[in-house]
Design a protein that fits this description.
This protein is of the alpha+beta class and 526 residues long. The chain has helices at 7-73, 78-101, 112-132, 144-230, 245-314, 316-319, 323-354, 366-377, 402-419, 450-454, 473-483, 521-525, and strands at residues 362-365, 387-390, 397-400, 425-433, 436-443, 487-491, 499-506. The longest helix is centred in the middle third of the chain and has 87 residues, at 144-230.
């Protein structure tokens, strides 16, 4: 048995695939957004550095201009010191921005070169200030000491100007490197984005395929199968390989369809059987009306023929002196009488078959009745050597008319004895079955075909081995049993394998008086 896969697990798997697809797309989106954010932060950070570097360069230029004016006009160094301190202030602001930028984890945020350069600029500014401070306050700076201090500060100012000029070049180099870095990151992001889109498309296709196989296709097959079964195609079967609740539903539908087919076939068989019974009843009724009208008309001519033949037979000796001719005539007259009485017997059977009305019923022992009929048949010469076995046991009391049931037993035993060979055997069993008495007649004779079984109880239908019989015996038997509220069934495994007749009759009620009709089902229930 294959392992069951609930729809809940399949839905969880589908939800997991959707979650993975959303996660992949979200990761790709967030990666692009955060890369853009880092780039913007880097550009903003370095953009704030540019005006500060320009301001520092302007202060250095102003300082150099003050230095040159002091040398040319022999002015005091105080003005130069003011510009030096102004440059130091601009440098401090720049260094603060450089140090703050070091804390941001953004592209081209490495400011090591800028920081070293600013440190060297600070050293040069400090050196210039240290050189000029001793000469500060001298009147007109005309002494050799003040002039020498200005000259000594000149090379340092040149270096200071060169260092401040290098600061923008660092940023330009970083921007140039940023182009290569952004290009590499762009390729990475493009590849990641395409990979995420492809993975999302694959997951979406997988979800679509699984949804079709697990949901839409089974539902479509279930709907198609239900419509076919509703249309009467009970041979159609659903085949689902999903191994989930829908497959169980398909199996249940198949079982229901199989049950419907069995019920339909059973109902068809019952309808056919009841139809045959109705047709047989109509035939019996027609034969009964025919027999009632014909038998009376035939009996009188037959009686006249028999009487005339008997009268001629008594006068044959006086009418025919030739003994040989008299013997022939007597033989023909005997044949006329026998056939006339045979025809009269047939008409009597027809009358008996068509006779309606109330019959007196009484509690009757089935086994004893069968013994009486069997003892009578054992003395019939044509049945010599054929055995009748009656199973001994507790007798069964049934509420019947004994004479009619004797006719039933007689007909069934005669038919069974006629169907077996010289040393054959007929078995009779009388027992109680549920709420009824049952007589079972079994023989090892010629058996019956399905066609014979279908027409067995129809009037004038006969298949005796000897080719004799009128075909009315079993019809009369069925009519008698039906009138008693019973049922007769015949079965055979085929030609040469014997036959079995089962007669079911109502049991006698305790305390019933002889001649009372059997209690109805409502009376028994009360």
């Amino acid at each position: 048995m294959t392992k069951r896969r609930p729809i809940r697990d399949k839905l969880l798997l589908g939800g997991l695939l959707v979650g993975v697809m959303v996660a992949v797309l979200s990761a790709s989106s967030f990666l692009g957004v955060y890369s853009y954010r880092r780039l913007v932060r880097a550009l903003s950070s370095r953009a704030a550095e540019l005006p500060l570097a320009a301001e520092l360069d302007a202060r250095v230029a102003t300082l150099r201009l003050s230095h040159a004016r002091a040398l040319a006009t022999d002015e005091a160094v105080d003005r130069v010191l003011v510009d030096v301190r102004s440059t130091a202030e601009a440098l401090a602001v720049y260094q603060g921005e450089v140090e703050a930028g070091e804390l941001d984890d953004v592209p081209f945020a490495d400011r090591t070169r800028e920081r070293d350069t600013a440190r060297r600029i600070a050293e040069r500014v400090a050196a210039v200030e240290a050189t000029l401070v001793p000469a500060a306050g001298l009147p007109n700076a005309l002494g050799v000491f003040g002039h020498a201090a200005l000259i000594q500060a000149g090379p340092q100012l040149e270096q200071l100007a060169g260092l401040t000029a290098e600061l923008p070049t660092f940023l330009q180099q970083r921007l140039h490197d940023l182009a290569h870095e952004v290009r590499g990151r762009y390729r990475t992001l493009i590849v990641a984005t395409w990979a995420a889109a492809s993975a999302a498309a694959i997951l979406l296709a997988a979800i679509g395929v699984l949804t079709y196989r697990w949901v839409f296709r089974p539902l479509r097959l279930l709907g198609h199968g239900s419509r076919r079964v509703a249309g009467g195609d009970f041979d159609y079967r659903l085949r689902l390989d999903t191994r989930d609740e829908m497959a169980e539903l398909a199996d249940a539908l198949n079982d229901m369809t199989e049950r419907f087919r069995e019920i339909r076939d059973c109902l068809d068989r019952q309808v056919q059987a009841r139809t045959r019974e109705v047709i047989r009843s109509e035939q019996l009724a027609s034969v009964g009306f025919l027999a009632a009208g014909v038998a009376h008309e035939i009996n009188n001519p037959l009686a006249s023929i028999a009487m005339c033949a008997e009268s001629l037979e008594s006068r044959i000796d006086t009418m025919a002196p030739d003994a040989t001719e008299a013997q022939v005539t007597r033989r023909y007259l005997s044949l006329i009488q026998n056939e006339a009485f045979r025809c009269k017997g047939i008409t009597e059977k027809l009358l008996d078959f068509s006779r309606l009305g109330e019959v007196k019923r009484q509690a009757t022992a089935l086994a004893a009745l069968v013994h009486d009929v069997a003892d009578m048949l054992r003395h019939v010469g044509r049945f010599a050597g054929r055995a009748i076995e009656i199973e001994e046991g507790v007798d069964v009391l049934v509420m019947v008319n004994p004479q009619e049931i004797k006719q039933v037993v007689l007909n069934l035993l005669v038919n069974a004895l006629d169907s077996i060979d010289e040393h054959g055997k007929v078995s009779v069993v009388a027992r109680r079955s549920g709420g009824a008495g049952m007589l079972t007649f079994s023989d090892d004779g010629c058996g019956m075909t399905p066609e014979v079984l279908d027409h067995l109880f129809e009037p004038f239908f006969t298949r005796r081995k000897s080719g004799q019989g009128t075909g009315l015996g079993l019809s009369i038997v069925q009519r008698i049993i039906t009138d008693h509220g019973g049922r007769i069934e015949a079965s055979s495994e085929g030609p040469g394998r014997g036959s079995t007749f089962r007669v079911t009759l109502p049991l006698a009620q305790i305390g019933a008086l002889p001649g009372d009709p059997p209690a109805t089902p409502l009376e028994r229930a009360a």
